[in-house]
Design a protein that fits this description.
0% strand, 3 helices, single chain
């Protein structure tokens, strides 16, 4: 019961309801609340998501309400622009894994074996 409450707290508070188990969606706008994200990273992700949502009929957007499909060179430029955001996330994740998560797991496993 405590583990479930903890996991729910992490999902709803720490991750600001960004993801849910077994759900087929991610609440992109909520990513900005996650620790480690700058407002600039949040804005870059949300802006790109908003733009993609206007072009792709992900939720059956009427064709007359959809935006023009961008030229491939424009799409490549946008992907290059968002890449540093994801690289920063990977770096933060890697640093967390090395400095915090791995030592925690090693300590926990040692206690379990004792």
């Amino acid at each position: 019961m405590l583990r479930g409450a903890l996991e729910r707290g992490i999902r709803e508070i720490v991750l600001f309801d960004t993801v849910h188990p077994f759900a087929d969606q991610v609440k992109i706008e909520n990513v900005g609340a996650i620790v480690g994200f700058s407002l600039e990273d949040w804005k870059a992700i949300v802006d790109l998501h908003d733009e993609c949502s206007g072009v792709i009929a992900a939720h059956d957007t009427p064709s007359d309400s959809q935006q023009e499909i961008p030229h491939p060179s424009e799409l490549v430029a946008k992907l290059k622009a968002i890449r540093p955001v994801f690289e920063g996330c990977k770096k933060r994740n890697s640093e967390f894994d090395i400095t915090t998560l791995k030592p925690h797991r090693e300590k926990r496993n040692a206690l379990r074996k004792a």
